[in-house]
Design brief:
14 helices; about 350 residues; about 50% helix; single chain; Rossmann fold
C-alpha cells in the first residue's frame, strides 16, 4: 500500500495482538492509535474509508467515521459467526458494504441485515510453489529420502513464542519415532526470526530456518504443522496434509471459550463443514499429541491421499471469478462514482 502511495497514519502491525489478556496489556498504546486515526479523519474528511481486519479496533472506528459523513467499507468480514455476534449490529448500522472471503459468510450476514458480498478468498489462485520439490530440497541441502515436516508456528511474535516450546517437544518425540527433516518456515519480514528463543529452538531440535519461502516449504512438505490461522488456508490451497494447533494465555481461553459458537477452530474444517484436519487447541496442544498426529499421517499414505482430496474441495470452494481484491476495489470505486467522487 505504501508503494502505491498510501500514507501511513497508524501501522497495522501495532494492532496485531491476539487474546483478551494480551490486548489488555496493550490497551493504552492501541487507544493512542485510535485517537490518532480519528484525528486524521476529522482533519482531512475522506469521502470513504476501507477498514481492513482488526475488528476490535475498526468496529470502534466505524461509527465515528459514519458520524463524520464518511462512507465505510469493510474488507474481510469479522468472524462474528464464531463469537461476539453483537458486532453484527455495528456493521449493519455503519458499513455500506462488507466483503466476505469465506463462502458461508455472505448468507449468514445478509440474514442479519448486513449488506455482505462474497468475493472469494484473495489467496485462491495465487498460492503456489515457486519451484519443484527437487529444486527446494537442493537449494536448502535437504535429504531427498527423508520425509519433510514444515512448521509454521504463527505470524505474530506472541503466537510464535507460545508455540515454540510445544513444537520443540513435538519435534523431539517425532524424531524418536522416525527420521524426519524439520523446516521452520517464516515470512521474510518476520520480526521474531532473530529472537534468542528461535535460535535456541533451531539449535536444540536440529531444524532448518527457511525465510521468505513459506509456500514452497509447505507445498513440498510431506506433512505440515501450521498454527491455526491464515496459514492453514494456504496449506489447504497447496494440498499439503496437516495437523493444526493453537494456544493462548490460559485466562484468555477460560474467558473466551464459552463465547465461541463454532464446532471447529480451523478455517479448513469450518469451510468443509466437517473435520478434515486434526486440530489441537489449548490443553490438547501438547508435544505428544502433535507428534502422534503427525506420525499417523506420515505412516499412512492412504490417509494423506484422502486428506489431499478433501483439501482440494476446500480450495475449489474458495475460488472466484477474477481477483477478489480487484472485485472489491471495483465495487468501492463504483460506489464513490455514484456519490460524485472522482
Amino acid at each position: 500500500m505504501r508503494a502505491a502511495g498510501v500514507r501511513t497514519v497508524v501501522d497495522a502491525d501495532s494492532l496485531a495482538v491476539v487474546g483478551l489478556v494480551e490486548v489488555l496489556q496493550h490497551l493504552p498504546r492501541i487507544h493512542g492509535e485510535y485517537r490518532r486515526l480519528l484525528a486524521a479523519a476529522e482533519r482531512e474528511r475522506p469521502a470513504a474509508a476501507v477498514l481492513t481486519d482488526s475488528s476490535g479496533f475498526h468496529l470502534r472506528v466505524a461509527p465515528k467515521l459514519k458520524s463524520m459523513g464518511v462512507e465505510v467499507f469493510y474488507l474481510v468480514a469479522p468472524q462474528a459467526w464464531a463469537w461476539r455476534e453483537g458486532r453484527v449490529r455495528v456493521l449493519e448500522r455503519n458499513v455500506k458494504e462488507l466483503y466476505c472471503i469465506f463462502p458461508f459468510e455472505e448468507e449468514w450476514y445478509r440474514r442479519r441485515g448486513v449488506n455482505a458480498v462474497y468475493i472469494g478468498h484473495p489467496l485462491a489462485g495465487k498460492v503456489r510453489a515457486a519451484g519443484t520439490r527437487m529444486e527446494f530440497f537442493a537449494r536448502h541441502r535437504l535429504p531427498a529420502d527423508v520425509p519433510l515436516v514444515t512448521l509454521c508456528p504463527g505470524s505474530r511474535r506472541g503466537e510464535v513464542m507460545r508455540h515454540l516450546p510445544v513444537l520443540a517437544g513435538a519435534v523431539r518425540e517425532l524424531k524418536a519415532m522416525r527420521a524426519v527433516t524439520i523446516v521452520l518456515a517464516a515470512p521474510a519480514e518476520a520480526r521474531w526470526i532473530d529472537e534468542p528463543a528461535v535460535r535456541a529452538f533451531l539449535r536444540e531440535t536440529g531444524s532448518r530456518l527457511v525465510t521468505g519461502e513459506t509456500w514452497d516449504a509447505l507445498a513440498h512438505a510431506d506433512v505440515a504443522l501450521p498454527a491455526s490461522g491464515t496459514v492453514t488456508v494456504e496449506a489447504a490451497l497447496l494440498g499439503v496434509p496437516m495437523v493444526t494447533y493453537y494456544r493462548v494465555q490460559p485466562v484468555t481461553y477460560w474467558l473466551g471459550r464459552p463465547l465461541v459458537k463454532t464446532q471447529f477452530f480451523s478455517m479448513v474444517n469450518l469451510v468443509a463443514g466437517k473435520r478434515v484436519v486434526e486440530e489441537l487447541i489449548q490443553d490438547e496442544c501438547t508435544p505428544r499429541a502433535i507428534a502422534g498426529a503427525a506420525e499417523r499421517l506420515l505412516s499412512d499414505e492412504r490417509k494423506r491421499t484422502e486428506m489431499r482430496a478433501e483439501l482440494a474441495a476446500v480450495a475449489a470452494s474458495l475460488a472466484s471469478d477474477g481477483d477478489p481484491l480487484d472485485q472489491s476495489a471495483a465495487r468501492i470505486a463504483a460506489s464513490l462514482e455514484l456519490m460524485g467522487v472522482k
